[in-house]
Batch of 4 targets.
Target 1
Amino acid sequence: MNDKGMIIAGLIIFFTIFTFPIWYNHGAAAPPPEPELSQKAKAAKTCVEDTAYMRTEHMHLLNQWRNTAVRDGLREYTGKDGKTYEVSLSNTCLDCHSNKEQFCDRCHNYASVTPYCWDCHTYPKEKM
Ligand code: HEC
Ligand code: HEC
Ligand code: HEC
């Protein structure tokens, strides 16, 4: 190996060791979040839409809720199963999912998202 090769090899080794904590943590990363259901949610058994849809689309659904409530004044939402709900982040979502920290936050912390909704909207203080 010539000098150039040695330097490059050295750099690669150095870089690997230097960044080890970063990619090691990534690989062995925190286990996927396990959002906990409150007693009320457990009793209700289902969400406003099916779970798979909620998992991936709840942010869009909330957007849609906000728009229908604020722009169109529609305050009722009918899920695919025919049940109706009041269109409200605090009074509906957070009434059932009253354990925001063990539910919403557990996923959001994992995904590193911090919805700014709580600047204005309220959520219940710790209850299960
Ligand atoms: C700057 C303050 C503010 C922020 C931040 C905010 N909202 Fe709102 N939101 C309001 C106001 C004011 C209304 C209208 C309240 C009404 O007419 O009942 C509203 C209404 C809503 C509604 C329909 C009515 C209700 O009570 O829930 C939804 C759903 C909603 N917002 C969702 C969200 C979501 C989701 C976020 C975060 C991504 C968010 N909002 C962030 C102020 C805010
Ligand atoms: C009547 C109670 C109730 C209401 C109201 C409700 N949920 Fe749910 N939600 C549940 C239940 C129960 C589950 C879990 C269903 C299951 O285990 O399959 C769930 C599941 C979810 C999930 C998926 C969780 C996961 O493990 O992947 C998300 C996200 C969610 N809800 C968000 C919301 C949002 C946002 C709202 C308001 C638009 C809302 N929920 C309103 C009861 C409710
Ligand atoms: C199963 C995991 C999970 C649960 C439970 C969950 N969320 Fe989320 N949420 C996410 C993920 C992941 C994102 C980011 C999606 C993206 O960036 O595309 C997100 C994004 C959002 C956003 C948009 C934020 C933004 O800045 O774009 C809102 C609003 C939101 N969630 C509200 C809620 C509320 C309210 C609850 C509890 C009732 C909840 N979520 C429960 C996983 C979850």
Note: The chain has a mean pLDDT of 88.
Target 2
Amino acid sequence: MKTSRRLPRWVFVTIAALSNLAWGAPPLDITDQHISDTTNTADWLAYGRNHNEQRFSPLTDINASNVNRLGVAWHLDLPQDVGLVSTPLVIDGVLYFTGTMNVVRAVDARTGNVLWTHDPDVAGAIAGRKQAGWVHNRGLSAYGNKLFAATWDGRLQALDLKTGKLIWSVRTFEVDDPRYITGAPKAFKGKVLIGNGGTETGPSRGYVTAYDTEAGKLAWRFWIVPGNPADGFENDAMKMAAKTWTGDWWRHGGGGNAWHAFTYDAELDTLYIGTGNGSPWNQKVRSPKGGDNLFLCSIVALDPDTGEYRWHYQTTPGETWDYNSNMDIVLADLDIEGKTVKALLHAPKNGFFYVIDRANGKPLSAEKYADVNWASHVDLKSGRPNERAGARYEDGSENIYPSPVGAHSWHAMSFNPLTKLVYLPTIHISSDFADQKYGADWQSVPFDGGTAVDWTMGKDPRPYQGELQAWDPIAGKTVWSVQQKMPWASGTLTTAGDLVLQGDSEGLFNVYNARTGAVLWTWNAGLGISAPPITYKLDGTQYVALLVGFGGGYQANLFPGSEKLGWSYRAQTRRLVTFALDAKGTVPAQHPPMFPAPIFEAGFEINSEQAKIGETLYLQKSCYLCHGGNVVAGGMAPDLRASPVPLSEMEPVFEAVVRKGERVSRAMPAFPDLTDEQLEALRHYIRMKAHNGQ
Ligand code: HEC
């Protein structure tokens, strides 16, 4: 009788192990240790590279002496994209990034070949919904074997890192809520955190929520401002915060929305969130008898496991200028007076650069890094700013530095532990504030929102509006700086090769000497750059990757500026470009800057009454958020003065686009409530602006 010959079990085990090796690395399992490891140069595992958010790479292959040999290694054209503001991640040889309408792409980090694409169908989710916010997205987070991405309409999604397959998706707010998400989630300790924006798009009460990374189950939520006391407080922190509010603030939401900075401190096991401004901005309306209005404009330290409050530091008590503290939070060890301090670095909109002891939230330094006239200084003992009389526009119109754009916005700063300098993208714009039109009974309405204060761009004496500053956080002063004519340059990257890398809104990608600010190399992208560069090393080659695609709030052109750049909605190609030493690649030439030529419609008689109604609708329905203030576009959407669609002969198309939502998939929302008369009024307003321009 024949006996079957069976192989011993160890043979199968060995074959399985070998095939695993042959067919690819074992499943990815990203941990907090990996994200904290600053020596790993093959990957870029988190938004700010590591949990410390420093955006510092120890790589020296590309350095101050050879950077002039940089060339294009590969590029990927993204013809469907508009604004690109995201920081890519690099994990195990794959580069991940988010594009317009929250499309996530995974590409081979050595070649740019697209491996997979995940389209969360934002258009489908917002169909029929009113619109708020922007289509831009700043990035991703990774943990375990998953990638986390948030969508404009409020979903948080977990994708399989290898395949892009959707593993789970949760709603972080209801689809009819005027909030929106533009930020990157933050993953740590098996949880993933997300907040939202929306203080201007209706009454909004900010919060952040942590979900477990495995199944997307809600772990905890932290409300940033107190709700109506009659409903009871969620926790002691809210009870404490409520003592700093007056009037019936809950009617307005209060605000505080955390739409950007979340930093996990693995050393002190603490989570820091940067909180937003008031909803509405004007404190006289929001909290009529004053008060600090906690936790607006603060760094709030939370227990990462439970979301419980630990400490806070408020940068702008009782804010009334949109001076949120949503800007990035960088962790660094600093030698201060002979002691090593675990510090937190933060440059919020209000123009002061803060160094905070992160063990207890005490400010160690708070110096002006830009023109500031709302406060003379910060008293370090009390931690409070010394405000100047009149700064709250209580005596009528007032010119205030900085403007609501901020002296620094979401564009990331970087910290180099070798030079001990922070590389900070700075904005110099002032604003005239006036609130005579807004009484105590003013009320914002979801989606038609508002700020309860009028603000227009002030006349600025400086011949430049942008500046890259190398800031010494210990001395509290600028060491070198580069003036930039236009504001809104990208975030920065710094390396041990003594380099600082930054793109600007005029389309130049510059590499600077980190110690002196000398320009060492420049590449002209032919399109404004708003996304920060990253770097990684694979197979012995150091790459620098950069998304090119002007974007963010300045592109919306809420006030004049970005239309001067010529970055048109349709003309230039958005792309991902990588560079390496001695690389000889090329990219197709860009369309030259294009400036819209308003169309004059012969025979169109502008009715000034109707044009006035049209103007109100243009503001109320938030057309200006994309098509620009005064109908002058900055590239986020077509310039309507130069568009044929609002012409009389195209009326049915105008109706199909504006009322029926024919272009929702291209981020042009539907406005189903508009009547025929209102559509006509909008056309009169657009024609008036187009004809004035002739
Ligand atoms: C969230 C941003 C956003 C808002 C708000 C918005 N639009 Fe648009 N709009 C767009 C984009 C993007 C396009 C281009 C779509 C495409 O690629 O065809 C567009 C296209 C259009 C067009 C067609 C222009 C052309 O030449 O193709 C018209 C007309 C228009 N919008 C009118 C309006 C009006 C009127 C409002 C306010 C009631 C408004 N839009 C609000 C983003 C927006």
Note: Residues 1 and 7 are 19 Å apart (CA to CA).
Target 3
Amino acid sequence: MPSRSSRWILALVIGSLGLALSSRDRATGEAEAPKDPLAAAVERGRALFQQSWGPGTKSCAVCHAGGKNKLTGARLKAYPKYDKALGKVATGQEKLNEMIQSKSKGTAFALGSAELTALEAFIATLR
Ligand code: HEC
């Protein structure tokens, strides 16, 4: 039967071990989340904007980096609006999906997906 004081020491050791473990969990949790989630989304969107969508397909950048179709954040922010190609009042994400399918011959993403939101975040930075 341990004495009263050794039980106290045992309780203290177990308690501080628990504290040490839980702060280590918090530290690894922070290391996994990106430091700047918006900057990470913008970078992901930039990669999507510049990528080819398959053999012989055109990236968004091929048509939208300059010239009369130069894309800016303001042009995407004009949505929701009536879009001729879609034949309805469309959201910005619906227009991005339409472009992915019609002009870039790629596969549309789910509305609200991390990919479409990343594309939106990148296009918002274009002046
Ligand atoms: C072959 C050239 C071409 C490619 C590739 C292309 N687009 Fe477009 N895009 C156009 C043209 C032309 C328009 C204007 C006509 C229309 O709205 O359909 C347009 C319109 C848009 C608009 C509406 C705003 C505006 O400027 O009128 C957005 C947003 C857009 N494109 C995004 C994209 C994204 C994102 C990609 C890549 C997935 C992409 N486009 C690929 C030619 C292209």
Note: The chain has a mean pLDDT of 87.
Target 4
Amino acid sequence: MADFVSGFWNMYVMGLVGLSLLFCLFVLMSNNKRETGPVELHGHVWDENLAEYNNPLPRWWLYLFWGTLVFSAVYLVIYPGFGNKKGVLGWSSAGQYAAEMKAAEERYAPLFDKYKGMEIPAVAADPEARAAGKRLFVTYCAQCHGSDAHGAKGFPNLTDKVWNWGGDPATIKTTITGGRMAMMPAFGPILGAEGVKDVANYVRSLSGLAHDSLRAQRGAELFQQNCVACHGPEAKGTPAMGAPNLTDEDWLYASNEATVIETITKGRTNRMPGFGEFLGEAKVHLLASYVYSLSNNTTK
Ligand code: HEC
Ligand code: HEC
């Protein structure tokens, strides 16, 4: 209600609400007749002899209507609803939400703080901490990485030993805190369709996939000229740049020739959002511990 720029709409809403209530009151009053004389008939007749009396509403029914009127008046005094009036209780859904959040913060902060002071592998070994971390993960991370953290095309699997940026505790925490931006440039314009196909065959040969060996030979040269700055001379990747190892069986996209060609031709831009500011260090610490536990056997 406070969002209206002019007071007119408040008055309009209040007027409508007031008039509706008055109208209900009027209808009730005008029907509030007790039967005095003999009951008349409506004059409608069905099935030859079935006639209808013109009786007033039963009392209990009428009282229900009075009850609703009283209820709405009391409600509008206590709660917001009458134009921009806030109601005597000062209740608002935003206020209730803030109060619940504050209560939860007070309840869980000591727990989070306890874990924040511990090393990540130690937190990861604590079943209660893992359970709390999993709840956070399902809330904030599952939409991209999957609730089982197995990932999807373009979203890394966090349960294996393959890391683009690094899987040691500190690096995982840095990734979650600040996010990551992976940039694989487009090589289509530089290498041309044939060149891309050659280098794609070379890339596939690195992990033992079917390839044309002549193309792979030419591709190896192109790779040394264009790709080693990021993927390294042995194509084993550079974690500092998030450039993946191209010699293993793990693929962020897919290993088929068409997808590899697409990656090299168009490049890839991939972003992991940062959560440090949004969640605060204690929750990020717990999340990092949970992620660490997924690929390290901490459940001793
Ligand atoms: C909007 C989608 C999205 C959300 C939400 C998201 N991530 Fe990510 N995450 C990504 C993408 C995309 C990458 C891969 C970035 C790249 O290509 O290097 C990634 C990468 C990572 C990595 C690095 C993996 C590696 O191989 O080094 C970790 C760790 C990670 N995410 C953890 C998390 C956690 C924990 C959360 C929840 C707090 C989360 N992510 C939420 C999209 C997301
Ligand atoms: C500027 C650095 C850079 C250069 C140069 C570069 N890449 Fe990449 N490459 C990346 C990054 C970063 C990613 C990860 C993209 C992502 O996370 O989405 C990547 C991803 C890939 C992938 C996908 C791997 C997968 O798991 O699906 C392939 C294939 C690839 N690069 C091949 C090449 C080839 C071939 C060249 C040379 C023609 C090349 N790259 C040059 C940075 C680079």
Note: The radius of gyration is 35 Å.
